Amino acid sequence: MTQHQSGVPRARGAGTGRLTSSWHPAGRAATLREHTACYGPLPQLTGRPRRELIDQVATGGLTGRGGAGFPTATKLRAVASGRGRPVVVANGMESEPASEKDQALLARSPHLVLDGIAMAAEAVGATEAHLCLARTRDWLVDSVLAAQAERQRAGLDRVPVAVHALPHHYVSSAETALVRWLNGGEAKPASTPPRPFERGVRKRPTLIDNAETLAHLALIGRYGGAWFRRAGRADATGTMLTTVTGSVARPGVYEVEAGLPVGEVLALAGLDAASEAVLIGGYFGTWHDLRRVTDLPLSAAGLRQVGGSPGAGVLVALPPGACGLAEAARILRYLASQSAQQCGPCIFGLPAIADDLTQLAAIRPDGDPLARLRRRLPVIAGRGACHHPDGAVRMAASALTAFAADADAHAHGRSCRAAIRGREGFDQQCRSGQRPDDADRRDTEQFWDHDRRRAGAQFWREGSRRSATSDVRWDAGPQRTALLPVPRPFAEGDWR
Amino acid sequence: MTLKVRIDRTACTGHGLCADLLPELIELDEWGYPIIVDSVPPGLTAHTRRAVSACPALALRLAREPRQHEHR
Q1: Which one of A58, A190, A463, B32 counts the least CB within 10 Å of its CB?
Q2: Which pTM value belongs to this model?
Q3: Does domain A233-317 correspond to CATH entry 3.40.980.10?
């Protein structure tokens, strides 16, 4: 288990490289032979008591790696004891733009995820399994299908896994959206209850787990729950995949022990010493002053005291020349554009707060955007069918806290730290006399190109492309899209 | 067990009748969508039933739920 191949992002501490052990240095997928040589054969599943694996997962303390961090054993038990023959759905959508870990895992170790699906199906007694991938990543679909063909030749999987390519929007990876699409509908989140574990695909109890969670499950099935606990801490067990981007020298996907201090994870990727803030958890995450979180464990328990959560394991270091409020506004506009347009508070609320934050960031106030934000943010959260508005509001609120001094400066018509530091890219935007919607249109391309040239800062949508010379580059897919798509309006058919 | 007002957010289209009929528990946000105090005090049960049945989008319902139940 401690074997590493050169060029593979390494977890810290002896023997913690688990999911990444079989990652090929060239970035291609591990073949079935390589996979088996690394982890041993898929254990005999039939004939063992069904509860055994679930008990091992409970012992290991595995929690979901998709963002919510729900205990996996609890979910397995709920699905296994539901009414009707269960269905297993692996969620490999990874629609969080700042995260690349599930793509990395599926591109390099597809067999680990497929093993996990097989074991989960056995544990809950499912005869049907689905793997959901984003339609925009056909290179990933190809990689998984190739791995599946290998397994079919070897006669490995008792439960057939149907691989699906779903519409790719931020909210289409919500578990209710997967269920709705698999049932023949649109890939939009649905109202709960019923939750998918009660009534999901074809009204059966449905286990939906993130791809990384299933990969961990595959290893627990081989080595046991006590082995899983050997990495991590008591309140955050095992290892986790993290995507570290932004102002770091070696952006990429790293496997680390759960609960490693935030600062150490950032250091692995070569954090820019001048960076002062970090976005933890991705676009649904929270902004923090780096000094306040650098010693905190990257775990749900460790970050709770500062109102954060590791989410899907994303860390984005804010480039020293960038304005945190402008970043938050850009993310918020993106999230507003990704709404499924189903619930009023999301349809109207997100564009409204995105406008407020843009006005504040660009110092082009129409009235008092800061006061409006303080009034609007508390009333939007919790009022959608899914958690899309909640996540967007949390991110915006955390930006106002983490960049409180900047927000105050902007509200009084003054430049923020980023501008004062002489990063003229932002200063020009602040003072160019353009209306926010003009700034809006040009910022994703012109402003960032401009700032990149001037400040030499690294931005997360450049993440993996910029890492071309570093050894943590994992992506070999020719058809990658930019990490941050330019928002565009939806067409009706987009959701099918 | 408590009586709670549940709303299907995808069904609600912001008619606002509920807030007119039950201002004690429901107010509207600036875009016209309801903000609900979900636990119904005993004295308001009849009014709440009336508001629920008046919703043109059939987005409201009354649910009897255990006190500790977590929901939105």
Answers
A1: B32
A2: 0.82
A3: no
Q: Could you say which of A190, A348, A379 has the minimum Cβ distance to residue B35?
A: A379
Q: Is residue B32 part of a domain?
A: yes
Which chain A residues touch B32 with a CB distance below 8 Å?
Answer: 344
* Second CATH level (architecture) for the domain A324-467: Up-down Bundle (1.20)
Choose among A113, A71, A77, A111: nearest CA to A92. A113
Do A191 and B31 make contact, defined as CB atoms within 8 angstroms?
no
Distance from CA of B2 to the nearest CA of A (A): 18
What ipTM is given for this predicted complex?
Answer: 0.86
Q: Is B72 on the interface with A (CB under 8 A)?
A: yes
Where residue B35 sits, what CATH number does that domain have? 3.30.70.20
Closest CA to A313 of A304, A326, A300: A300
Contact B72 A383 (CB under 8 A): yes
Residue B27: inside a domain: yes
CATH topology of domain A32-230: Rossmann fold (3.40.50)
A470 touches chain B (CB under 8 A): no
**Distance between CA atoms of A314 and A284, rounded to whole angstroms?**
10
Q: A379: buried, middle or exposed (CB in 10 Å: 19+, 13-18, 0-12)?
A: middle
- Chain B residues with beta carbon closer than 8 angstroms to that of A348: 31, 33
Which of A351, A343, A335 lies closest to A436 in space, CA to CA?
A: A351
For B33, the closest of A342, A344, A376 (CB atoms) is A344
A345 at the B interface (CB within 8 A)?
yes
Length, in residues, of chain A:
496
Domain spans in chain A, listed from the N-terminal domain onward: 32-230, 233-317, 324-467
pLDDT along chain A (496 residues), means of 10: 36 56 80 90 75 92 92 94 93 90 91 95 93 91 93 90 90 91 89 87 94 95 90 90 88 89 92 91 93 94 93 89 86 89 92 92 87 94 90 95 91 74 44 39 33 29 28 25 33 58
Tally of domains in chain B: 1
Picking from A438, A429, A352, A440, the residue whose alpha carbon sits closest to that of residue A389 is: A352
